[in-house]
Structure formats: structure tokens, C-alpha cells
Amino acid sequence: MSDSEYIVQAKNLQxxxxxxxxxxxxxxxxxxxxxxxxxxxxxxxxxxLLHCVAGIxxxxxxxxxxxxxxxxxxxxxxxxxxxxxAFGFVFQFGQLVPELTAEDxxxxxxxxxxxxxxxxxxxxxxxxxxxxxxxxxxxxxxEMSGGQAQRVALAxxxxxxxxxxxxxxPTGSLDSLASEQVMELLVDAAHQQGTTVVLVTHDPRIAxxxxxxxxxxxxxxxxxxxKAKVVR
Amino acid sequence: MSASYALLGILxxxxxxxxxxxxxxxxxxxxxxxxxxxxVYATLSRLLRDRKVTIEQTTEQSGGPERxxxxxxxLGRKDLETWLASPxxxxxxxxxxxxxxVVTSILLDKDADAYLDAQKAAHIERMRQLTVVRxxxxxxxxxxxxxxxxxxxxxxxxxxTTSARLQKLSKEIRSxx
Lengths: 232, 177
Ligand SMILES: Nc1ncnc2c1ncn2[C@@H]1O[C@H](COP(=O)(O)OP(=O)(O)OP(=O)(O)O)[C@@H](O)[C@H]1O
Ligand SMILES: [Mg+2]
Fold this sequence. Notes:
The complex is a heterodimer.
Chain A: E1 6-17, E2 20-31, E3 35-40, H1 46-53, E4 61-66, E5 69-70, H2 76-86, E6 87-91, H3 102-112, H4 117-130, H5 146-158, E7 164-168, H6 176-193, E8 196-200, H7 204-207, E9 212-217, E10 220-224
Parallel strand pairs in A: 3-8, 3-9, 6-7, 7-8
Antiparallel strand pairs in A: 1-2, 1-4, 4-5, 9-10
Chain B: H1 2-13, E1 16-17, H2 18-28, H3 37-49, E2 53-59, E3 67-72, H4 74-85, H5 93-107, H6 112-136, H7 139-164, H8 166-176
Antiparallel strand pairs in B: 1-3, 2-3
Magnesium ion (MG) binds next to α1 of chain A.
């Protein structure tokens, strides 16, 4: 199963919040190295799907397979470990610690993975140049612009060299030029590291950076663009 | 039509030979779709006939046809400037066709959502190609791809809004039947 072409498979996921059904039989398959965009109207269940696939939410029913392992069967501890070592996350807001400097923020997940302090900061360093924010190492992220902070968030997610990156509206708070720059960086870095990317967006221009898109409607994945080829 | 103004515009900067005109045109506008020589000469002869350009100089070439240096006339420049100052008419065709398909789906009790999703996928597919052009091309290609991308995006906003109002639209259409 681990040599399967799919890194992630979600089968028939159901998830309700109280009486509100968020997912009603959603399925998703993502190939290794693929960049997939999840699209759909507001409230359709995109974020819930992403959170279930990333093991942050537990679905009420259905299965999530990651690299041949059934997430449902894993202990909370094992899932946390997996999330820390193999998964990267970029969200619209809030995953950076605003009081910490940019380099502290990037080093943090590495430190949580028990990488030495020296190594963590050395790993963080090249990302500043790569993302065009050199010189901002000691800036507190709470005092950076949205676009700069979003690059730090991207570096933070990618510095652990995740197998798969989950992004929920990663450019949601940025203007079109800044969004475009963040997407360029995300796509380039993902291609270079061979990272699989699953990203939620309602913006078709952002989805156009992906290899293919899936559409969510009323808690189900209704359409998958099978025609789209992985162009590298 | 727009090719003829594009050529006139290039001549507006300086007189040029047909061959150089084509080269310039292709480098500004035709990287994806170069202009055929036949079209360049057909357009030039039309512009000559309409007195918007003139042949400024003819040079003999040993063994080949003579080279003609084309230049814009004052009539041509006036026309060019009027054209530049007038806004383009919008092309409502895409929207009309999309709307007809939605209404027809409803009339035939077919799944209009499925059609809209398919349309969306087709649009995004085109946007994906344009995004590649944008990422690999020079600034001129990038700006042209942007223009197309923003138009496709506008179509998609319409698709999304229509999709959100499909139930209401179905009701209205069915009550009119
Ligand atoms: N924590 C929660 N508590 C209660 N209801 C929730 C919660 N999270 C999501 N929902 C509900 O589940 C449904 C799907 O929400 P979800 O956040 O997945 O939508 P979305 O597609 O990401 O929307 P958006 O584009 O607005 O972010 C919605 O009806 C929402 O109100
Ligand atoms: Mg969401």
C-alpha cells in the first residue's frame, strides 16, 4: 500500500457539527507529488474536508489513509507525531506566533521535532533569501505585512520538509500580486522538494496553479478534473 | 481589424519594411500566434488603398523583389489616434451562450449544476495553461495572459453566482412554462 500512487485517500467521509452536516460522503484521492486544489462555495465543507484529511478532525465515519496507514486506527499521539514530522500547514491567519521573530517562527516546528537549536536556525536561514524576505530574520511576525508574514508561514511549513503540505486559503488575506508571489513560491518549493500539496481556495486563479482541482458541494466531492495532467 | 491598427501603430513610431513589421508585430503580440506574411502584405495593401500608409522608398535588391519602406500618413495617424481614444465594445457572447446552456438544462430537467461544474473545470483548465505561459513568458506575454485570466475569472464569478441561484432560477423558469 505504501508504494501505491496515492499518498492520501479519503473514503466516504461524514462529519457533522451538532445538527449541521459538514461532510456527507466526501472522497478524495491525491497522488504523490501532486498539487490539488479543493474548490467550492462558502460553507460547502472544504475546510472540514482538509482538516479531516490532515488528521486534525476525526470524521464521524469514513476512512482516511495516509501512505498506507489508516489514520482512524492511529492513536492521538501517533497522529500528532505524524502531523509534526510529515505534514506542513499553511492557513489564512494565525499559525504564526506574532511575538516571536520570523526566524523563531520558522525554527519552532523543527525544535518541536527535536532538531537541535543550532540546526533548526541553520535550516531556517536559507528560506529568507529563497522567499525574498532576507533581512527580516529578527522582525516580529506581528509587525510584518500580510504578504511577508505569509511567506514566513510558508517557510515554517516547508522547513520541516513535509511529505505533504495542507493549505487553507493560503493567500486569502493578500492582494492579487502578493497572492501570486506566494503561489509561485509555494509551487516552486513544492516541485523542488517533491512535496504533495492539498490546498483549499475559492479563487480560480490560485486553483490554476494546481495540477488539478476537485469541487465540493454540500459536503461531497462532486467533480474531479481527471483530464488535467501533471505538467512539470 | 486590430492587426491592422497594430501594424499602423508600429509604423506610427517609424517607417518600416514589411519583413521588419512582421517581426515587430510578432515580438509584441504574436508569440503564441505569429502573423502570416500574407496577412501583413494584404493589410498593408489595404492601408495603402485607404491612404493610411504610403511607400516612402523603394530599394532594388539584386536578384530579389524590391524592398518597400512603408510609412504612416497624416490620415493614418489621425485614424490611429481616434481608434486609440475609443473604448472597445464588450463581447457579451460567452455569457449569452453560458446562460442559454443553463436555461436549456433546466428546461430539459438536466443537471445544470453538473454543466456549470464542467464549465468551471474547462475554464480553470484554460487558466492553468495561461498560468504556465505567465510563469515562463516575458512581461508582455504575462500581461496578455493576465488579461485573458481576468476575463475567465469574471466568467467564473458569474458561473458561481448562477450556481448559487440555480434553485430560484429553476422555479422562475418552471413557473413560466
Ligand atoms: N467548528 C464548527 N462548529 C460548527 N459548525 C461548523 C464548524 N466548522 C464548520 N462548520 C459548519 O460546517 C459547514 C462546512 O464548513 P466549512 O468550514 O468546511 O466550509 P468551507 O467550505 O471551508 O467554507 P468557507 O469557504 O466559508 O471557508 C458549514 O455549514 C459550517 O457552518
Ligand atoms: Mg473554509
